[in-house]
Amino acid sequence: MKKDEATCRGGSHRTTRTGTGAGFAARTGGSFAGPRAMVYDSDNIEEADILTAREEELTMPDYVHPDVLVSTEWVAEHLTDPTVRIVESDEDRALYTQGHIPGAVEIDWHVDLQDPLQRDYIDRAGFERLCAERGISNDTTVVFYGDKNNWWACYAFWVFKLYGHDKCRIMNGGRKRWELDGRPWSTDRVDYPATTYTAPEQDGSIRALRDEVLKHCKAGKQLLDVRSPEEYRGERMHMPDYPNEGAVRGGHIPGAANVPWPLNCNEDGTFKTAKELEKLYIKELKMKRRSPTIAYCRIGERSSLTWFVLKYLLGFGNVKNYDGSWLEWGNAVRVPIAKGDTPA
Question: Is 168 tagged catalytic?
């Protein structure tokens, strides 16, 4: 993982500023008439597609549910608000130790959210225990942020929604935007008094399992593969610079359009405008907000960001994240697989 690090001293303790590599935007084309493929060319990055205005950081008025996003300024103003808990969730766990937003707690996607025995999430009791230990109550506003343009923040957000937590927010731009705004990092240990938390069982309306995905695929419903074009075409079974994590077969689920997750984001880590996202999904792919939609990637982390965009920023009414994703599908017996640039 490539990181640009600059170390500074603040007050009596040492803080570390860590930034991820620059994000990117790319040309897209195609239509969703069946569906069809979204073509992504990583060699043709267009500066014109990158939105760098401060306006997007401060206000999000054009999204269907703008209240789910908060700016770094809003977070800075609520650092000591007892009704708010700031949560960092990263791919690289070292980042939190090197420097986190003052007062933020860490929730690790693997250690804290995954069942240690079977491939599933922690159960209801485990989620209740996690929230109580982090000082989160049922009425706490939980603000998630992290590295990778908020991949893992959206993943943690999705798990919290899976267990029905009402007040969930994403800090637009994540660690990268906080760094670009020159805001302070802290290395202080964070502990809050334990709370009492009560959760319902998992909400199946936002999670797709393999058998449902198979029926969805056969019915020709809206299906999005948010991985890289190379993964989609079956040329590799993992992201560039990442190890293969065990898929036996490469390719994509038949009927899935390829819309790589970075197309949702600007160079500074913030989400693109509603107008840009509508052009991508609705005008170019001809997707319907009311049609059942499933997004997937490799293990459900990248697709959780696309799920967030579709559900909250664009207002899709029935969208699910298939967290089993290619790690499950690429190992399953007798499930259909397609290769190449086209969905079929």
Answer: no
